[in-house]
Automatic annotation (TrEMBL):
GO terms for molecular function: oxidoreductase activity. Belongs to the class-III pyridine nucleotide-disulfide oxidoreductase family. The lineage of its organism: Bacteria, Bacillati, Bacillota, Bacilli, Lactobacillales. It holds the Pfam family Pyr_redox_dim. The keyword Cell membrane does not apply. It catalyses: 2 NADH + O2 + 2 H(+) = 2 NAD(+) + 2 H2O. It comes from Enterococcus devriesei. Residues 3-306 form the FAD/NAD(P)-binding domain. This is NADH oxidase. It is an enzyme of class 1 (oxidoreductase). Residues 334-429 form the Pyridine nucleotide-disulphide oxidoreductase dimerisation domain. Its cofactor is FAD. SUPFAM superfamilies: FAD/NAD(P)-binding domain, FAD/NAD-linked reductases, dimerisation (C-terminal) domain.
Length: 443
């Protein structure tokens, strides 16, 4: 019998536990988490806070009882204080102050990430919040319902920031969205696409303050104003969504780290300690677009890394196929999806790329139900392999990105896409499909 201790019970830890419990009879599984819940879908927080779904209950997709029925031992509201890697022991403390030690044969670290907290004056004031855990969403939801909360500042215009800005606006608040960058969503999309999102946000009443850096929060006991390098604005609530860093506290002095502090793992999710695996946001991942190890914090990547670690710990040598970082966002009816690298990201990582753009209606012009679709395909100059794609529309074009994800993984060239067999029916698409037309127009 092999005893595996899993620290962290969100997406990656859950996937690792399920893999071990469902496929291997010789596993004793111990799951430990400092939270009072497990398996929270944080990507649904804005939907719930913005009242686009009725409640938060269904954002929890796994129950403690289900794992215990499979034979797992679970300790929640329990903090892992230290790990003795030589003795292979995990030292824990419950919320009641009780301490205990769990020994392990194999250890899976699924400790996730922590929000970046700007160290600026006034950060200790009330009504300044982060968005990560379920409790964070609860706190923001509750304060949005409080009297006197009219002006909301969201710091950070990445996915979480843009989504919570929409949610606060749907709750009738005056929303100011700040970012030090000059546009929203710069990590996944080129300016051609983010210009549309910025216009979309503005048209729906969100006040954009891009190219502004927050320098101070003002107030007596709670925040009353935010100061930037360009001005001062009255504020009742601040929601920080600047980004995340890997949570490496338990292993940073023992395990080899990536340049950003994530645990460096191989394609089996194994760290520099052969008995320790790391999964999810605390670990690195292999990018098929870059053909290199990198860091991409996404729930889908966390799930896949947990599955890979589970099989390898269980004794089945399974290698990760790598990821593309596929993602999407839907704000006020504008849908944007991307996979792989934008032109800007590719160039930043030293890839010599070109791109091809196309824009057209989803269906023939005679169809009443219709909308424009914008596409960009990014490809490497020398190899001509596809390394990225971006699409946007008020149509649901999300499924298209999966094909591009596979194309990147399989190193398909832009030329291979030119005569790809794509069916046509007016109900769905055009005879000259935008994918085909974009590929044909590539240099």
């Amino acid at each position: 019998m092999t005893k595996t201790v899993i620290v962290g019970t969100n997406h990656a830890g859950i996937a690792a536990a399920n893999t071990l419990l469902d496929n291997f009879q010789n596993q004793e599984v111990v799951m430990i988490d400092r939270n009072d819940n497990l398996s929270y879908l944080g990507c649904g927080t804005a939907l719930w806070v913005g009242r686009q779904i009725d409640s938060y209950e269904d954002l929890f997709y796994a129950k403690r009882e289900d794992f215990e029925a499979k034979g797992a031992k679970i300790s929640i509201e329990t903090t892992v204080e230290t790990v003795d890697y030589e003795q292979k022991q995990v030292h824990c403390q419950t919320k009641n102050g009780e301490t205990f030690v769990e020994s392990y044969d194999k250890l899976i670290l699924a400790t996730g990430s922590i929000p970046i907290a700007p160290k600026i004056p006034g950060r200790e004031l009330a009504n300044i919040h982060f968005l990560k855990r379920f409790q964070d969403g609860q706190a923001v939801d509750e304060i949005l319902s409080s009297e006197g909360i009219e002006n909301v500042a969201v710091i950070g215009a990445g996915y979480i920031g843009v989504e919570i800005a929409e949610a606060a606006k749907r709750r009738g608040k005056n929303v100011l969205l700040f970012d030090a960058m000059e546009r929203s969503l710069p990590s996944y999309y080129d300016k051609r696409f983010t210009d549309d999102m910025d216009q979309n946000l503005t048209e729906h009443g969100i006040e954009l303050h891009f190219g502004e850096l927050a320098t101070e929060y003002k107030g007596e006991s709670k925040v009353e104003a935010i100061v930037t390098d360009k001005g001062e604005y009255p504020i009742d609530l601040v929601i920080n969504a600047i980004g995340f860093l890997p949570n490496n506290d338990l292993g940073k002095n023992h395990l080899e780290l990536f340049k950003n502090g994530a645990y460096l793992v191989d394609r089996h999710q194994q760290t520099s300690d052969p008995d320790v695996y790391a999964v999810g946001d605390c670990a690195t991942i292999f990018s098929n677009a870059l053909q290199a190890t990198t860091y991409i914090a996404l729930a889908t990547n966390a799930v896949r890394s947990g599955i890979v670690a589970g099989y390898n710990v269980g004794g089945v040598a399974l290698e990760s196929t790598g990821v593309q970082g596929s993602n999407g966002i839907s704000i006020f009816g504008l849908h944007m999806v991307s996979t792989g690298l934008s032109v800007e990201a590719a160039e930043k990582n030293g890839l010599n790329v070109k791109y091809t753009d196309f824009e057209d209606l989803q269906r023939p012009g005679f169809m009443k139900n219709n909308a424009k679709v914008k596409i960009r395909i990014v490809y490497e100059v020398e190899s001509r392999r596809v390394v990225g794609a971006q699409l946007s529309s008020t149509e649901d074009i999300s499924s298209v990105i999966h094909m591009f994800s596979l194309a990147i993984e399989e190193q398909v060239t832009i030329d291979k896409l030119k005569l790809l067999d794509i069916f046509f029916l007016p109900h769905f698409n055009q005879p000259y499909n935008y994918i085909t037309m974009a590929a044909l127009s590539a240099e």
